[in-house]
Amino acid sequence: MSKVEISASVLAADFTRLGAHIQEAITAGASRAHLDVMDGRFVPNITFGPLVVEAVRRCTRAPIETHLMLIEPDRYIPEFAKAGADVLLVHREACSNLHDTLQRIHGLGKKAGVVLNPATPVASIADVLSEVEQVLIMSVNPGFGGQTFMESSTDKVAQLRAMIVERQLDCAIEIDGGIGPANAGKVVRAGAQVLVAGVSIFQAPEGVAQAIARLRQSAETA
User: Fold this and answer.
1) Of these residues, 14, 36, 39, 74, which one is catalytic?
2) Per-residue pLDDT tens for 24-78?
3) 8 A C-beta contact, residue 222 and residue 189
C-alpha cells in the first residue's frame, strides 16, 4: 500500500444527516467508512448494530470496516457481514480462539483484522499475523471518541511494522484514536498506512473537506 488511506470514523458524524456527512468525507478523499460497534460490556459505551451498518452500506460504495468492540464477537459476525461490512475487526482481548474467529470471517468472504488495545503487546498476535489483512493499533483506550493520542502508540506501530517486514507479509497497519494533523506524520513514518479519524474531520471548524486535506498533507509529507 503506497498511499496513506484515511478511514472516516462514523461515530463522530452528524447522525441527523449521516448519509450526506459520510459521502462528504468520501468525496473529500477518505477511502473507507469506519464503524465502531460497542456493546456496553467490552467497553463502557453503547453505539449501534447491524441496522446502521446496513444504512451506511446503502449510502456509499466505499469499503466499510466494522470495529467490533464486543464480548463474544463470533455471535454477531454473520449479522454484520450480512449487513454489508467489507472488513471485520475483532479485538485480541475479546477472542478466546482468535484463529477460529478469523477463519469465520474469511469463511463469510470478508477481510479480517485484529485490534490491539494500548496495554496489549504486539507479540500477542504473532501467531495469527499471517492470517489477517490488517492490524488496528488503538492509540486511546477504546469506548469513547475525542480522546488524546497516546504517544507510546508510535513505538508500537514501529514494532509491528518491523515484524511484518521481517516476515514479508502483506498486512496493513491501521491506527485509531486521537489522530489529526499534529500526529499523522509521525505515525506514518513509524509504519501506519491507514489513519482512522473522526472528531478531527467530522467536527473540524473548517469543514470536512479542508480537514481531510490537512490530515492528508500531514500524513503524506512525513
Assistant:
1) 36
2) 999 999 999 999 999 999 999 999 999 999 999 999 999 999 999 999 999 999 9
3) yes
3-state helix/strand/coil string of the chain: CCCCEEEEEHHHCCHHHHHHHHHHHHHHCCCEEEEEEEECCCCCCECCCHHHHHHHHHHCCCCEEEEEECCCHHHCHHHHHHHCCCEEEEEHHHCCCHHHHHHHHHHCCCEEEEEECCCCCHHHHCCCHHHCCEEEEECCCCCCCCCCCCCHHHHHHHHHHHHHHHHCCCCEEEEECCCCHHHHHHHHHHCCCEEEECHHHHCCCCCHHHHHHHHHHHHHCC
Based on the residue annotation, tell me whether 176 is a catalytic residue of this protein.
Answer: yes
What pLDDT score was predicted for residue 142?
87
**Cα 133 from Cα 122, distance rounded (Å):** 16
CATH 3.40.640.10 describes domain 5-220: no
The reply to whether the predicted model has a pTM over 0.90 is yes
From the number of C-beta atoms within 10 Å of its C-beta (0-12, 13-18, 19+), residue 15 rates as exposed
Is 36 a known active-site residue?
yes
pLDDT, one tens digit per residue, over 68-90 is 999 999 999 999 999 999 999 99
